[in-house]
Give the backbone structure.
Amino acid sequence: MPSPYTATFSLQHLSAERVEDFWRVSDSVARERRYLAFLEIPQAASAEYARSQLTCQAPHLLLLDGNQVVGWCDVTPHRLPIYQHGGTLGMGLLPRYRGMGLGGWLLESALQLAEQRGFRRLELTVHEDNLNAIKLYEKHGFLLEGRKRDAIHIDGRYKDVLMMARLSCAEPPATSN
């Protein structure tokens, strides 16, 4: 998918060839200890997650600067039958790519892909002090559904986690009997 910003940026679906690149970027963001539910991501666990995403053809986009992966946005489908119309959204960008509008482009593209694949509900959690992300999610239709008080503890500090969700406006795909 070509970028509306410059020719150097593009989006690419996760592929077997990019599993290690996805791990490097997601682990780097995790090690910042500010945004994700993980403080680090073991390579084997990331590879297993990526394989499961590929197997079920989950929406999972990578942001590239030239040939280098610099961000991602993915939807992890819910497995239980009564929740299969939804998934959990996750995303991250390397620090130097934040604040450029790329996150909005990446998120919007992932939301469109999820909708095309029949997801009706997308949910996420976000640290209460990640104001830029909260604004981005609200701009793209996510609403606050709740707050988990003192839900996380990082470096001696407790923080609340906000739960947000977005419902698709599209009609669910017709099912045949």
